[in-house]
Hints:
Elements: H1 3-13, H2 22-28, E1 32-35, E2 44-47, E3 50-53, H3 59-75, H4 88-107, H5 116-119, H6 123-133
Parallel strand pairs: 1-3
Antiparallel strand pairs: 2-3
Helix pairs in contact: 1-4, 3-4, 4-6
Amino acid sequence: MHGRARAIEVWRSHHLSIPVDLQRLVSDLELEIVLFPFKGRVNEMIVGETIGLRPGLPRPWFRWFVAHAVGHYVMHVGSTFELEPWQWVNRARDEWQAEEFAACLLGGPDGWSYSARRLGIPDEKYLLVQKLTGPGG
């Protein structure tokens, strides 16, 4: 299932509105968020029902990474990291689906009509939200 379709299901089943209350959604899904001092380029990871986030993330990025991790949780089995090199193609597909999910979850059905600030997302992700939630998206 594509990230957009799954985000729409989650949006409807959890009666979400703009800006999305991620704290409530995470609680409804019985997930836990913990801060973890990741090294290198890792900002977020989900293992089981625990989302790990790098401390000190700006609020819009914190929200984006939570939505991204929730996407992995509802669409993919296990952790967001597979260690076998042959799984690279699946990992790339999974990452795109989680990005698509985050954009559609945080943007809702009319994300294109709100500002990045109103949605509580990074400016860098706003074009993706517009593309996926806009008319004909």
